[in-house]
């Protein structure tokens, strides 16, 4: 037997699997990467040697209104490390500048005071102006024309009107944008609901190029790059983290060139070969990424890439925040069938996208091919079942349910302990 551990919320789950049934354990090499410097040293070195850009301190000189776009509570960006370094470098040459941290909520809810303090620390929360982006508040937006896709480009005016726009974030594989980080701080980070819906349309989500680890020909990436340039994003600091959410590398500088270098580093660590199996067990990487079912679809896509057709995907996610999207939840709860959901979505044009449609579309794609079992909080079991998935109280029970569904003796198993950290290649 082989014991395998899975991140679950702030804790871990363990499962023993018979070695003769285990096809493979797919792990990002980032989890084994040993940095030879401290997290702070890594970030400071990146800031001191920006890629295709002047140093942030030089860009900040003589600027009066500086805005830093920062990821929200759903992203494991170690802002308690990165933000003080960014602020220190800005204040080195612009001590009197008005600095605003603009929290890039995208389509998510606002962060709470407790979440902000957990992210930045009390000192920053109490001394720096922090604004919460609200994609549904049109008063916050300014119209900058059209995206390459034709959608209206409405972006947060605090960001666009800044003398200097900076963004912090992290780079990991992303299930339709290719990679997180870089341009995503602007779109969807600080974009209007209207703009996010246009970019996340059914046509783009359905594109063979809108997949984990791919930027080439990706229509969503193209829109995002355009929006970041239009917003005037001048400098980024993006980190790469391991399974413990510790910084193992950092990339600072030009919004596109620094990000591209970071994605190449992540790709070199995250790429794994698929090990097709009857049952694939995965997670969404633990807290904060597994706070809800909505986010956990990301982890399912890694399993999707290594599960035999008609197989079973098991995903362990704490889902302390419930389903994570009312429209997302209701669509599955109220539909006659998953096929109906997919047909309805694919019939919509670029300007007919509805909230949460993209996550719905990807989950429907998965559910049309596989049975999905969620291991999560017992209080969430009715939500899980309402959405057409099965629920299990622990991994052992989930495996037994999967075996029963397959009605096959000793079905093979592939394990992906952290589904959001890998790029599964067939």
TrEMBL record:
InterPro entries (alphabetical): LarA-like, LarA-like_C, LarA-like_N, LarA_C, Ni_dep_LarA
Domain LarA-like N-terminal, chain residue ranges per copy: 8-213
Domain of life, per lineage: Bacteria
MF annotations from Gene Ontology: lactate racemase activity
Coiled coil ranges: none
One Pfam short name: LarA_C
Chain ranges of the Lactate racemase C-terminal domain: 272-424
NCBIfam families membership: Ni_dep_LarA (NF033504)
Listed name of the protein: Nickel-dependent lactate racemase
Native organism: Halanaerobium kushneri
Classification lineage: Bacteria, Bacillati, Bacillota, Clostridia, Halanaerobiales
């Amino acid at each position: 037997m082989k014991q395998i551990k899975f991140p679950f919320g702030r804790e871990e789950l363990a499962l023993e699997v018979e070695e003769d049934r285990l096809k493979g354990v797919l792990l990002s090499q980032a989890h084994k990467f040993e940095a030879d410097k401290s997290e702070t040293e890594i970030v400071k070195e990146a800031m001191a040697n920006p890629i295709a850009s002047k140093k942030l301190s030089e860009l900040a000189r003589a600027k009066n209104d500086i805005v830093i776009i920062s990821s929200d509570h759903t992203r494991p960006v170690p802002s308690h490390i990165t933000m003080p370094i960014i602020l220190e470098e800005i204040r080195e040459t612009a001590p009197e500048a008005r600095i605003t941290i603009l929290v890039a909520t995208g389509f998510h809810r606002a962060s709470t005071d407790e979440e902000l303090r957990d992210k930045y620390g009390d000192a920053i929360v109490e001394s720096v102006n922090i604004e919460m982006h609200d994609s549904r508040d049109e008063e916050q937006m300014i119209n900058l024309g059209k995206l390459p896709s034709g959608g209206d480009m409405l972006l947060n005016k605090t960001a666009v009107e800044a003398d200097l726009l900076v963004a912090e974030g992290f780079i990991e594989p992303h299930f339709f944008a290719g990679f997180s980080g870089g341009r995503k701080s602007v779109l969807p980070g600080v974009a209007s609901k209207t703009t996010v819906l246009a970019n996340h349309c059914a046509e783009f989500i359905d594109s063979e190029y809108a997949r984990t680890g791919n930027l080439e020909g990706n229509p969503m990436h193209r829109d995002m790059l355009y929006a970041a340039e239009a917003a005037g994003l001048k400098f980024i600091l993006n980190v790469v983290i391991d399974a413990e959410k510790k910084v193992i590398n950092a990339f600072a500088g030009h919004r596109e060139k620094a990000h591209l270098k970071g994605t190449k580093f992540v790709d070199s660590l995250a790429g794994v070969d698929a090990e097709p199996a009857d049952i694939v067990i995965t997670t969404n990487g633990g807290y904060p990424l597994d706070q809800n079912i909505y986010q956990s679809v990301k982890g399912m896509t890694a399993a999707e890439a290594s599960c035999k057709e008609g197989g079973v995907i098991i995903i362990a996610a704490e889902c302390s925040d419930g389903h994570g999207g009312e429209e997302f939840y209701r669509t599955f709860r109220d539909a006659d069938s998953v096929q109906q959901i997919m047909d309805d979505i694919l019939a919509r044009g670029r300007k007919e996208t509805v909230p949460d449609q993209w996550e719905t579309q990807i989950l429907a794609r998965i559910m049309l091919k596989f049975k999905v079992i969620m291991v999560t909080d017992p209080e969430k079991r009715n939500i899980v079942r309402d959405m057409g998935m099965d629920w299990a109280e622990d991994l052992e029970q989930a495996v037994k349910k999967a075996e029963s569904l397959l009605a096959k003796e000793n079905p093979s198993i592939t394990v992906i302990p952290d589904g959001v950290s890998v790029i599964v290649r067939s």
